[in-house]
From TrEMBL:
Belongs to the helicase family. PriA subfamily. The lineage of its organism: Bacteria, Pseudomonadati, Spirochaetota, Spirochaetia, Spirochaetales. InterPro entries: DEAD/DEAH_box_helicase_dom, Helicase_ATP-bd, Helicase_C-like, P-loop_NTPase, PriA, PriA_3primeBD, PriA_3primeBD_sf, PriA_C. It holds the Pfam family Zn_ribbon_PriA. Its EC number is 5.6.2.4. It catalyses: ATP + H2O = ADP + phosphate + H(+); Couples ATP hydrolysis with the unwinding of duplex DNA by translocating in the 3'-5' direction. This is Replication restart protein PriA. Binds 2 zinc ions per subunit. The keyword Transcription regulation does not apply. Its cofactor is Zn(2+). Keywords: ATP-binding, DNA replication, DNA-binding, Helicase, Hydrolase, Isomerase, Metal-binding, Nucleotide-binding, Primosome, Zinc.
DNA sequence: AGCACGCCGACT
DNA sequence: GTCGGCGTGCTC
């Protein structure tokens, strides 16, 4: 018998091997000789012996006795290979666990806990009915924090499982807590598989087998759980749809939302996404009617919309303004919890006007210009536009301009001085990756009221819920606003809105103080004035006029090498090739936005250049990139990374 | 992606 | 004379 095998190499073809009948079958991993090497490949077809014009080698052994992937997953892999421009073998080796033996350790332990039977609100019930009565459709649960989205997801899941079908439940890594797993595990009588990046290969294999052996009804996890090898999925849930962590940071840089959409088509699954702050992509899709919007407007657990105050930092000399100080004092007095939210300082310094807060933008792309110290110029990292460092503000004419932004140390120091008797603790993602126990304790202490002020980054803005929390102070909203990215307004809006949701999660007296130099910014004002629809509509208009997603698609090609001259040369060559291929193709919608040194020019002793392309028609754009890269003979010391629909361009 | 083969420059 | 640089080509 012969087996056609995909290998984990950038070669988009199968290789044929001989095997003894019964030794392996479709869907199994096999160990095979390839040149002088031994590789693990994936059997995607078996056939009778036949004459071939090449020599055929024998399989070393079959890693699996029974299939580890389905034909539907193979179809998804082939689709991904086209969309993300990677070989099928690379896609398969990314989605299928590499473990060879199942882990001995228990999958996870559910702690017995009392979960009261929750009554659904009218809104929740009608959303649930809508989902249950329209299998195979796509829905968006658009609801504020605390509106009870999770309960709707879980009821919909129960219904699908009752019908004998399976469920995939995606949550952002950060919300994948032990508590959530425990709850889900109890609710679905342990017929749950867990898939996320922190599992070891053998643990991953164990959960994967649980699915294949029919011992799980629901797979829960972060991004990679979208590949759960169920044969018949009735429902795919994507909670917090707007989260960037659904996009893979490594090649192949897939987006779990896109993969979910493909698998939902394959298996006629219902797709339910949800968030309080949809991505602009999702918002446009709802607007066009491609997915049905289901609103959840009331908070089921009580709690009212937090009051938002914007503080102009231009008049302040300290990092904690007078107004924020007052609010903190009042909260401390009432023994209510305070979180001070600091964005991780951007990768770039941004130059701003000290009189009006204005940040200079690219005239072509409207993204913040970055300051290059060496050349004393302001540069656009999208299109390459550059201008000498301006001496006066283009908005108000003031000559008082400087580099802005402040670090966490300074805030911590000032908070300590202002509130000497308050107990202050720090919590950020950097700390989280190092010492999990310490983070857990910090959170517990804050919950119990043993910590008064929590100073944190991203982490405290998402996922965590504290009934004690009354005040959130955003130290400087400008730091997300001034990231040189066309999504900076959207990100700022989303972050502030999430922060606001945290403050008003359980209480009626929640407060948010946003400190900024840009008091007129759309995102900030929209959060304060609850002008959500207006914000989205306005942002869509801007994207449309500038030709950015969701009205176009982008592809970023990043070239890197240890040799500075060769990357620069290679990026010039590839750029010219792309231009040639585009003009020959006749696709008038596709163009190269720019070819530039990356914002992070040197990373891990590699020099980096980026070529950014845009196209209205994705097939056109994809074809241009694929053809150009096939035609381009990449020098051996250069590595090219392809990012389709990039979310971050650093 | 690796790994071999192969063809020219500068070294014991 | 050989050691080693990396361009080219192949792997069932
Ligand atoms: Zn100004
Ligand atoms: Zn530009």
């Amino acid at each position: 018998m012969l087996a056609e095998v995909y290998l984990p190499l950038p070669l988009n073809q199968t290789y044929t091997y001989r095997f003894k009948e019964g030794e392996t079958q479709f869907g199994c991993r096999v160990s095979v000789p390839f040149g002088k090497r031994k590789l693990t490949g994936f059997v995607v077809n078996v056939k009778e012996d036949q004459e071939t014009d090449f020599e055929i080698k024998e399989i070393i052994k079959s890693v699996d006795k029974t299939p580890i992937f389905t034909s539907e997953l193979l179809d998804t892999a082939k689709w991904m290979s086209k969309v993300y421009i990677a070989s099928v073998g690379q896609i398969l080796s990314m989605m299928i666990p590499s473990g060879r033996r199942e882990s001995e350790s228990a999958l996870f332990s559910a702690e017995e806990s009392f979960t009261p039977i929750k009554m659904l609100s009218e809104e929740q019930q009608s959303a649930l009915d809508e989902i249950n009565n329209n299998p195979g459709e796509t829905f968006y649960l658009y609801g504020v924090t605390g509106s009870g989205k999770s309960e709707v997801y879980l009821r919909a899941a129960e219904e699908v499982i009752r019908q004998g079908r399976k469920v995939i439940y995606l949550v952002p890594e950060i919300t994948l807590t032990h508590q959530l797993l425990s709850d889900i595990s109890l609710r679905f009588s342990n017929r749950v598989a867990l898939l996320h990046s922190a599992l070891t290969p053998s643990q991953r294999l164990k959960h994967w087998h649980k699915i294949i052996n029919g011992e799980a009804d629901i797979a829960i996890g972060a991004r990679s759980a979208v590949f759960a090898p169920f044969k018949d999925v009735g429902l795919i849930i994507i909670d917090e749809e707007h989260e960037n962590s659904y996009k893979s940071g490594q090649t192949p840089r897939y987006h779990a939302r896109q993969v979910a959409q493909k698998r939902a088509v394959n298996m006629h699954s219902t797709l339910v996404m949800g968030s309080a702050t949809p991505s602009l992509e999702a918002y446009l899709s709802m607007k066009k009617g491609a997915m049905k919007r289901l609103d959840l407007k009331t908070k089921v657990a009580g709690g009212a919309e937090a009051k938002v105050k914007i503080v102009n930092m231009l008049k302040e000399s300290r990092t904690i303004s007078k107004e924020l100080e007052e609010e903190i004092r009042s909260a401390l007095h009432d023994r209510a919890g305070v979180i001070l939210f600091l964005n991780r300082r951007g990768y770039t310094n941004y130059y701003h006007c000290n009189s009006c807060g204005h940040v200079e933008e690219c005239p072509n792309c409207s993204i913040a210009l970055t300051y290059h110290k060496s050349s004393e110029r302001m540069v656009c990292h999208y299109c390459g536009y550059s201008t000498p460092l301006v001496s006066h503000c283009s908005k108000c004419g003031s000559h008082d301009m400087s580099v802005a932004g402040f670090g966490t140390e300074r805030v911590e120091e000032e908070a300590g001085k202002l509130f000497p008797s308050a107990r202050i603790a720090r919590l950020d993602t950097d700390v989280a990756s190092g010492d999990k126990e310490k983070v857990k304790k910090t959170i517990e202490d804050f919950k119990k009221g043993e910590i008064d002020i929590l100073l944190g980054t991203q982490m405290v803005a998402k996922g965590l819920n504290f009934p004690r929390l009354r005040l959130v102070g955003v130290i400087l909203a400008d730091s997300t606003l001034s990231v040189p990215d066309f999504r900076s307004e959207e990100r700022t809006f989303s972050l502030l809105e999430q922060v606001k949701g945290r403050a008003g999660r359980y209480r009626d007296d929640g407060r948010v103080v946003i400190q900024t130099y840009r008091v007129d910014d759309n995102a900030i004002k929209a959060v304060r004035d609850q002008k959500v629809a207006e914000f989205y509509e306005n942002e869509l208009e801007i994207r449309k006029s500038l030709g950015f997603p969701p009205f176009t698609r982008l592809v970023a090609l990043t070239l890197r090498s240890r040799n500075e001259d060769s990357v620069r040369k290679a990026s010039d060559e590839l750029y010219l090739l792309l231009e040639r291929v585009i003009s020959k193709s006749g696709y008038s919608d596709v163009y190269v936005i720019g070819k530039n040194p990356c914002i992070i020019y040197k990373k891990a002793s590699n020099f980096r250049y980026q070529i950014l392309l845009s196209g209205e028609n994705f097939i056109h754009l994809n074809t241009i990139v694929k053809v150009s890269l096939e035609r381009y003979h990449t020098p051996s010391n250069i590595y090219i990374e392809i990012d389709v629909d990039p979310l971050s361009l650093l």
